[in-house]
């Protein structure tokens, strides 16, 4: 049931999200594919239609689903994968003790392995390429693309009267998403659908500028904290609140087993940073890393079903000195590990040198590249510096190399960036990386608020999402301080959901504003339950309300404790509307009948209209000169 | 002592902010004026200088100060006020029961009045004008202006080597703030120093685009919740965490007595919305409001020392119909009250009609106008509509009228505004209101996250602060749901401090980045205590760290529980730096000596440089065409 996770055994939170009803919508093609979403029913007396919202929570919030963590989720996509006829099953790579960090004779500290590991994973037949980009470029619309199109539409065809309004900085957001549109976006590399053929449990989703802005939640243990049960619980908890993908960033022991439990039970794409596990295999000594160990780790993770790999192939030998003069050096774990290796060996990064070999693996499983920003700035002082943009230039080069093999790519981004430097990041990335999806960590817009970095970064994330970033990697209140617990995970996810939605609104994404309008209307009409149910976190909204007005009657009260019954502006607004209509007129007509009303009203309105016309004229004439002319008059 | 407020008697939080030391800095003129700030000392082994930060917390955090809530604070400014020779003492207006909401024979529910009420308040002598704007326009630099100049500088003259970097959209932020600069900004109306001659306890501060971005915290009871002790405690608590001004928005009983306790103990300007108390005096029946009752309330509050009044004189009769078609009508309490009155009487707003009479009162006490945005949008759907901008146009008209009498003015602003509509608000306000300071409520960038509206609005506040807004009115997690408690107040304040600071950084405010750099350097060097002490909320930062690593040794550990000892990128970065220098060379030289190092490094570096030059060329040539050209190719 909701909110009772077990810590001693692996238990997860199930049950519907408050106020929501799981639905499965058939795609238009009649192919039988059904897309999971949820609908929020509003009070019947309101006459308002149900609101359909995008749903990442998977079967866990479906009362009709049977959840068995030991068995994993149903392999939703398996038939689609097999039907393409281009994969073969083979004997899995043998599991080694070092895969779980057990390097010496001491085998203690292990965890229970997932009981239903697939012994014969899939890979592409010889010579085949199973990436969605490959299919897209051959003109094929896959079931995954069809699923994505329906998922992104959210029933927007019901909004025929909606007038689009936004500033998308040149994006191409369609009124209505067709499977063909999805295919085209993937073919040109402007979007990806990350889904390894060995992760058939995942519900397909797209990451791209012309789709809804997505968010990622990070989980994973460290040598110092957490365990398998907590990590599986955090994964399910994070998608309940809206995480579109989840990265398992474990760096402690039992990395392989932990990941298996997570992937088998994840309805969302799972990403990893393979260099972490590789480093564990060499006992934490970066200099002892080799291409062979890394390659073996890629295969190991590919067979389990990881959907995207962060690869720090842009941390090149020549760039490392550029980081020496920084305030916070190299803040990326993977980036710092590769830097150490390069310096120790006086050689170019083996990730860069073997990039095409990595690509061969990616295309055999349909794993997407998340080209890592190992040289991202970790402080305001380091933002947009030479090290950062040198790496970006290389990521652009690698994007085009990967695309030659039809392998899907997204690009990771910063970091810590003050607001005035954010747009340059977006512009450079679009140009250099051929519009490949951008996937940023925030950025944090100031360094001075550890404990609140979900907010310092939410500010930057909303902006860079507006400018065109396709996925935002969340930051929790624990950033810079420690490993997040499940409460931190929830706060981070909800913060990033609202930032992504603010970006969708600003971009003019069709149907984004439907939810805001529904909630505001519920607020205005004192439908408190509807307001809570439409919000991103219904439980917290209700809890906050009930702190001062817990009685049941308060849920229909025409006030709350902020202002009380006499001062509620919503209530007074209602009275104003009612009062005027009682006179059997519209408000305007009502005003006109008063003794001085007509003249006064007309005069003030005319003055305002005139004033606004004048304002418009001035703006058109002066444009951006508005600021320039005024700015220098310091000594008037 | 810290954090033990008493609820049954009036008690407040005292004691230094962790890691900070109160200082009083003499102004340059040698006049003897000393400005309160605080300094954060860093670990001696670091060799780093102390960091001076702006301090709103008043004597409460000064261990040398004697705090006696019954007596109030010392009248810091009294000598300056008397020395100007333009004020006279007179017998205060008699307190009436209705001032405390006691309208009938039932006198119960009252609170203990402040024991040291001043029986003879000050006002301007006949024909005099005591506003800071009046002095400024006569070329006089007052002690208040001198105080402000020193306060805003924060010792920035020690940063001679600092290179300014920002985008201020045409603001005029000086390298160094002189008292003359302050005088000029006030004379031209671009900044205000809100300080009523009857509030001599206040430490002078400036609100204006060319100064540090300020924040306001709202406190006050309602008919449903809270009491005097809680409100005084919240005021002291809010300024501890950084509130620059505080508004007392009480709407319940005991408004007069509550306000007296607050003002006598407030080292920051206090604002109110007088219409609230006026409405209480007529038993909550808006139609029964009269100009006389309102005027009497203004005098009552002026004598107590309120520093700025929110006056909703822009809610004109002719604009009210425009709000009828909105999703959320009129969300401002004052705005909805005035709308109700106007419709009931079929007459123009008495605030508008009597504006010049109000101005006469303002100039006799030096109370600043906060021209209210009674028609601000309360939902995304209503943003930037006709009602909102009609009112803004009128606020512009009223600004110029007030300025004719040398009365200080700031302009209130929205509300709920999606990101792409924010800039228009700033541009219109600057143009129409003659660059009078803008004071916005957020804006909230989406409606869908009640419970998280400090964040939805923090996103908008940071942006509009960057564009030029001078003060940001905070929003707490309880927005739309109930009255905030002290925890909510703290979260709201810290959120708005970080948003204001992010704006200062983006504007290129000199010395803003000093704190970010100091904190990041401490982070990089594992000076955990310094990192906490430099942050906006040292206690929370330390608490979060200690949740997983509580041992004392962890405070100097070269890792935290996020990554553990092997994976800490900060630690590895340090090792990279040390490793290279052990070879007795810079990192660059070190790389060059390797077998293939020199060639590889040079080649990659040359490639990157070439690539970046190419990027720059493309940007210069195509400019904003970068997006346009790419955006329409939907069917390539």
Account of the protein in words:
The structure is a homodimer of 636-residue chains. By secondary structure, chain A is an alpha/beta fold. In chain A, 42% of the residues lie in helices and 9% in strands. Chain A folds into two domains: 80-513, Alpha-Beta Barrel (TIM Barrel); 567-591. Chain A has 24 helices and 15 strands. In chain A, the strands form four sheets. In chain A, strands 8-9-10-11-12-13-14-15 form an eight-stranded parallel barrel, surrounded by six helices. A three-stranded antiparallel sheet of chain A has the order 1-2-3. Mean pLDDT of chain A is 88; it is low at 1-8, 590-595 and 622-636. Chains A, B: InterPro entries: ThiC, ThiC-associated_dom, ThiC/Bza_core_dom, ThiC/BzaA/B. Chains A, B: Catalyzes the synthesis of the hydroxymethylpyrimidine phosphate (HMP-P) moiety of thiamine from aminoimidazole ribotide (AIR) in a radical S-adenosyl-L-methionine (SAM)-dependent reaction.
């Amino acid at each position: 049931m909701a909110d009772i996770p077990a810590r001693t055994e692996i238990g997860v939170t199930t049950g519907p999200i408050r106020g929501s009803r799981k639905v499965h919508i058939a795609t238009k093609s009649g192919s039988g594919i059904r897309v999971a979403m949820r609908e929020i029913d509003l009070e019947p007396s309101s006459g308002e239609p149900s609101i359909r919202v995008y749903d990442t929570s998977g079967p866990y919030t479906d009362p009709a689903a049977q959840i068995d963590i030991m068995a994993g989720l149903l392999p939703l996509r398996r038939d689609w994968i097999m039907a393409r006829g281009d994969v073969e099953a083979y004997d899995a790579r043998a599991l080694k003790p070092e895969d779980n960090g057990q390097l010496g004779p001491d085998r203690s500290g292990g965890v229970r392995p997932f009981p239903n590991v697939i012994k014969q994973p899939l890979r592409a037949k010889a010579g085949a390429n199973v990436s969605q980009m490959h299919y897209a470029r051959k003109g094929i619309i896959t079931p995954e693309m069809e699923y994505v199109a329906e998922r992104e539409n959210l029933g927007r065809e019901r909004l025929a009267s909606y007038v689009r309004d936004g500033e998308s900085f040149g994006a191409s957001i369609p009124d209505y998403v067709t499977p063909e549109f999805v295919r085209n976006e993937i073919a040109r590399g402007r979007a990806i659908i990350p889904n390894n053929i060995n992760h058939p449990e995942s519900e397909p989703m797209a990451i791209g500028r012309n789709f809804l802005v997505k968010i990622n939640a990070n989980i994973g243990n460290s040598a110092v904290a957490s365990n398998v049960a907590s990590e599986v619980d955090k994964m399910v908890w994070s998608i309940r609140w809206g995480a579109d993908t989840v990265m398992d960033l474990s760096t402690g022991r039992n990395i392989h087993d932990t990941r298996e439990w997570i992937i088998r039970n994840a309805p969302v794409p799972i990403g990893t940073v393979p260099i972490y596990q590789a480093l564990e295999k060499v006992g934490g000594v970066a200099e002892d890393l080799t291409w062979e160990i890394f390659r073996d780790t890629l295969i190991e993770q590919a067979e389990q079903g990881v959907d995207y790999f962060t690869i720090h192939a842009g941390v090149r030998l020549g760039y490392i000195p550029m980081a020496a003069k920084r305030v916070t050096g190299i803040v990326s774990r993977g980036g710092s590990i590769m830097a150490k290796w390069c310096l120790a060996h006086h050689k170019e990064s083996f990730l860069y040198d073997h990039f095409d070999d990595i690509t061969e693996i990616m295309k055999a499983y349909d794993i997407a590249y998340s080209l890592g920003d190992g040289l991202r700035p970790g402080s305001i002082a380091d933002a947009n510096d030479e090290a950062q943009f040198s790496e970006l230039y290389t990521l652009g080069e690698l994007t085009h190399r990967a695309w030659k093999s039809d392998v899907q790519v997204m690009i990771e981004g910063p970091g810590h960036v003050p607001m005035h430097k954010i747009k340059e990041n977006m512009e450079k990335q679009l140009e250099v990386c051929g519009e490949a999806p951008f996937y940023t960590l925030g950025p944090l817009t100031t360094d001075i608020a550890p404990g609140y970095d979900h907010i310092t970064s939410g500010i930057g994330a909303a902006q860079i999402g507006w400018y065109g970033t396709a996925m935002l990697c969340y930051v929790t209140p624990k950033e810079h301080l420690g490993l997040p617990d499940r409460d931190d995970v929830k706060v981070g996810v909800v913060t990033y959901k609202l930032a992504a939605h603010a970006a969708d609104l600003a971009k003019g994404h069709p149907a984004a504003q439907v939810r805001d309008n529904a909630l505001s209307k519920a607020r205005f009409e004192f439908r408190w339950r509807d307001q809570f149910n439409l919000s991103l976190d219904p439980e917290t909204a209700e809890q906050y309300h009930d702190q001062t007005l817990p009685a049941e009657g308060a849920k229909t009260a025409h006030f709350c404790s902020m202002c009380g019954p006499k001062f509620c502006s919503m209530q007074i607004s209602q009275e104003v509307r009612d009062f005027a209509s009682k006179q059997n007129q519209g408000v305007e007509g009502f005003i006109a009948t008063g003794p001085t009303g007509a003249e006064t009203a007309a005069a003030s309105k005319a003055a305002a209209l005139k004033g606004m016309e004048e304002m418009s004229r001035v703006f058109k004439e002066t444009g951006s000169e508005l600021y320039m002319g005024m700015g220098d008059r310091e000594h008037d």
